[in-house]
Specification:
Strand content: 5-15%
Largest sheet: 4 strands, mixed
Shape: elongated
Number of strands: 13
Distance between the termini: 115 Å
Number of helices: 8
Strand order of the largest sheet: 9-12-10-11
Helix content: 25-40%
Length: about 400
Amino acid sequence: MKQSERDGDHIKMERQRWIHVVLLCVGAILCLSLGLSVADAKKHKKTQQGVSQKAEAGKAKSKHASARRKGSLAKAKAAALAKAKAGTRRKRSSPSTTAATAGPPSPPARDLFGTQKAPSPLAARAIGSYVRGCLAGGQALPVDGPAWQAMRLSRNRNWGHPKLVTFVEKLASDSQKIDHWPGLLVGDMAQPMGGPMTSGHASHQIGLDADIWLKPMPPKILTPEERESLSADTVVADDQVSVKPDVWQPGHVQLLKRASSYPEVARIFVHPAIKKALCQAAGTDRHWLSKIRPWWGHNYHFHVRLTCPAGVSGCDDQPAAASDDGCGKELDSWLKRMKTPVIQKVPPVQRAPITMAQLPAECSKLVGYQPPPPVPMGPPLPERKSGAQTAGQPAAPPAETQPVKTKGKS
């Protein structure tokens, strides 16, 4: 073989060897890159798992803390309730120098005063308040007068303090002679001894309240049957915020102005629509409007309330009327209520009747009611020293070291 051929073969083998080396290097580099990528992927996955585990652990820790707080609040409420109950028990079981007593419940006052047919033979006196009281020495308004007639005689409520009887007779006479009103139809005043009534009124108890119908007195004397059946027509329109133009008349305005003008009158209650009509008709002379105030009902009559007789103790007087005419915000508020439909509760809420124990003691004497003596229930409980330490309980820290609990604003 020639030398040139041998050199060509040698070069060719060297070239193949270098190609092989290069291929091996490229393969090694590719393998190394692939290995790093896999490691990075595993490391990233591990990191994400760690973050997720930490988040879950944080949520669990937060839930646990919230549960602990709720548990603490529940325990605190339970402890406060237990403490309050314990305090109530201690108050109920406080030591007494006499035996524990209890008596039968006091009867409803209306059951006793509603059956009285005649007044008490005593000097006239209004006892207590307009809504919790009674009347001594009551006087009857005559059934018929020159300018009035008493209505609903079967109720036996044409009684009152002599001051009230005198006022009704004077109002009837003055309104007829001066204002040309036909005459008064007088509704409920008080029972012979005052006190709570069996129906119809919360006040009228001390003989200083009277209901005067807005219906003019007819020209004839009514029979007893007519006085029971004659309708007391309303002057208020169906919208409850205005008066009926075919019923309401200037004479009504003058009658109410006349009633308000007497100094012994403390208040006159009328329907809000009537108060509105008076405000509109008053003109510039408005001082008399201050005593006339709106109240529920009173759509067919007005309710006159007198002040307590001068120099008599034991009568709770009506507060003085406000100085304004009552035709502003107060009236607007009432008219707004009239426009709002009343939702009747089913069953209707029944108020507990006033008992004899809730009236002044003198009222019991009027009707001859003697409260039964209290019944002993047992011996007095042993005295418990406030500073004694209960066995098994640690002593309370001094007052100055005890934490002060403040009540948060609601």
